[in-house]
Here is the input.
Amino acid sequence: MAEYDAIVLGAGAAGLMCAATAGQMGKHVLLVDHADAPGKKILISGGGRCNFTNVHAKAENYLSANPHFAKSALGRYRPQDFIDLVDRYGIAWHEKTLGQLFCDGSARQIVDLLLEECQAGGVTLLLGHPASAIDHADGRFRVTIDGQAHTAPALVLATGGPSIPKMGATGFAYDVARQFGLSVVQPRPALVPFTLGDDEVLFRELSGISSEVEVRWNKVKFREAALFTHRGLSGPAMLQISSYWQHRTPIGVNFLPDRGADWLLTEKREHPRMQFATVLSRGLPDRLAAALGERLA
Here is the structure.
């Protein structure tokens, strides 16, 4: 039986960071993942460049039944703290819109950084070996892997959710939480595109077009880009609002956030012979203006 101070299940971004931090505080840590390589989701994040933090991250940006947790977490470890860590490793980065930071090179640099941090903390890394059983007795958790027991007084579930099954994501953490009597909020899709029915031909015709919009659901609104796809609407604005949206409720998408209805009426009054699509094209991509003009005329 191998004994540790903490066992961390899941070698993604959270698990790697947790294990590295505990290890560098002098704790004997075991980091376990059923996948054969760490940080798989990190590698595909940000289009392969890893959007590793946002300089404008605030507690109110997080949806949680316990909003004080985000406030406490961000107070203890700020975006600037991780930026400083990235800088210490000499990783070049750049800022995109709305404070989003990306690697100039690739997401692999962030994975390597986290692995080196784990190594600096003396973390034991066990990959490609799923936990077959977890139990708790006498103040210690026992995790069975390949028939061998590993124990620790602290167990961290950092396995993520079931969002990307093809990357190996499962609902394992939910099962373990329920096993130990913890309440679990029913998971639902978030940060996802909106899909529409087959009868929405407009969207198939406009696939690939992007436009800055203001999208709103109840009192929540975001102003970012929306992307038409062959199945509906995607892009940053739609992904953001999807975290708030409730099933079978309407959302509003303003394709002319800088121009109100008065502008359209004025343009039409001053140019009475101008087609509606031509008026719209002054603020929208031509294909989008033509499609909306045809539908709204």
User: Anything to note?
Assistant: The CA atoms of residues 163 and 169 lie 6 Å apart.
